[in-house]
């Protein structure tokens, strides 16, 4: 009988490849739903599911969009949003196998490896960096202990072969491929040889003897004449249909293992029995087991003919394992919850002072109930809140932690609905949820923490809209609870908390370089520490900008020096910092390029305070540093000017030096604001306005010599920009056949601005 709700599903199966998922679905005893037609997923969950029954278990099968740890972690985090009752996640599919287990048992193609732990590895040139994850849960350890007994193992083996036969009867593609199972020496590479000397490829002409071309990787061993003299082992044909299950550590990496030498080094160090790419991503998010069929020996001798059979043996083993799994009783209403949509960030660095400050405030008996983390967009506020959430969960497992994305009313409402369902709160209409949740959290005697991530829109919090009340009306207050906000706007942070605001600044140089190194797939892309330090400083030590730079370097396989060369041209820099990239700990529909993050802030400023937006636009037309405050047009009310500048300071876009009241615009924000003006076709207009303001300021009889020199420097900067735009405008008018009024107006503005600035510099 089909369950009524998603909460009844206690088993998740995650597959990276359609082939793997097909094998699993073929073993379902009953299919309830496909692609979320009946079990509608929560908003913000980007996954696709097939729901069904395997034996006595209600199972949700999740298709991954691609291979790898990042994709797996994202899928597992999304799954937790919609399927809060999942107690066990099986990562099922194909993998590379170690030639022998830690017990010196031979591992053959088609055998199945099952994880009792997961080891993460990454490569740094010839060396690997590894990290062993924590032990599986007590229930999983109990299961592994049970299936390790001789009697249970024999039964498991019998069940595996039975389900494998069921698959073969239904579809022949799951059958044994009928080819030899050959293991080559680890030093023997699957590549073109000297007798193929007419080929021009990296196999023969590469800088390293270990290089292998794509054409070779797609070829079989016979066509490459992989010699019999280099064969270590050929499986006895009489045992070809035997399938063994091996339990031990499984290695999980960023890339497919294609080197026998590197494979052997990791096996020797970590005693692993298999190599795959998804287990570590799921392991951090859910109680999980990796169950993978061996389709190659994690070397360069790949053969896709084994993949379907390996997927079938893994699926059969997964079903056999589930017959020995006993789900826990569903949690009672007073059990703690940990509802955080992201896995813990393994690259989280630095921030000790911020974490310690937040921790001291949260742990103080009479400490504040509301805290805010503020800072420039891309500075790492969300990652600090995420690390804090996991630290609180480790310290006090009975404290419920609820994470609420606050980018829109809809996102908040969906998160509140998910929390209410988890807490068993009854409501009749969706618009009642926030009020019911507030009542519950105000009255409960259990410890709880609410994290509102991205609380940037003050209208949403203070004023609401025509159809929704202000969010501030629904905030609970309880001596057992805390509320934490992250926001780009310090002024908003103060309004939300009154005073308890932790302002986040850029990383220190050491942490910036470490973040860059940890974000790179190939560690040798960092040629030397000095160059890496120069790059992270150039990127203003912003974590998001550093991560984005690493993503570009990974994608294009370029080093730090080559990336720096791209940054010398403003146009290239703008493009680089406006490109989307994949990263952990980010919402599926969020804007992640650093410049586009700031564009969202520019729009918020424009909506909230037009004078602040005007000031930002004028400042962007001048040099980045030492702009006298007197340059800015003063409104009738001095208070309005203070509020406008306060808003820009609140977003960490500007700083104002005490004493001479000179303004400095953040260097990268300066570039982003100029790009923003161009994208809005306002650059010429504000350049002309800035020229007029400089003229007015210079003609002020009260100007001192120090400020006059600063104005001259900014006039020179502005004049250079006007010359560039004038040339562009002339070309635009030539391109437009016969010209048009808009082009003529642009040219007139540029001529006027140039005349004004030339007059300033001559005076």
From TrEMBL:
<dbReference type="InterPro" id="IPR053137">
    <property type="entry name" value="NLR-like"/>
</dbReference>
<dbReference type="Pfam" id="PF01048">
    <property type="entry name" value="PNP_UDP_1"/>
</dbReference>
<feature type="domain" description="Nucleoside phosphorylase">
    <location>
        <begin position="10"/>
        <end position="132"/>
    </location>
</feature>
<dbReference type="InterPro" id="IPR027417">
    <property type="entry name" value="P-loop_NTPase"/>
</dbReference>
<dbReference type="GO" id="GO:0043531">
    <property type="term" value="F:ADP binding"/>
</dbReference>
<dbReference type="InterPro" id="IPR035994">
    <property type="entry name" value="Nucleoside_phosphorylase_sf"/>
</dbReference>
<protein>
    <submittedName>
        <fullName>Kinesin light chain</fullName>
    </submittedName>
</protein>
<feature type="domain" description="NACHT">
    <location>
        <begin position="370"/>
        <end position="520"/>
    </location>
</feature>
<dbReference type="GO" id="GO:0003824">
    <property type="term" value="F:catalytic activity"/>
</dbReference>
<feature type="signal peptide">
    <location>
        <begin position="1"/>
        <end position="23"/>
    </location>
</feature>
<keyword id="KW-0732">Signal</keyword>
<dbReference type="Pfam" id="PF05729">
    <property type="entry name" value="NACHT"/>
</dbReference>
<dbReference type="GO" id="GO:0009116">
    <property type="term" value="P:nucleoside metabolic process"/>
</dbReference>
<dbReference type="InterPro" id="IPR000845">
    <property type="entry name" value="Nucleoside_phosphorylase_d"/>
</dbReference>
<dbReference type="InterPro" id="IPR007111">
    <property type="entry name" value="NACHT_NTPase"/>
</dbReference>
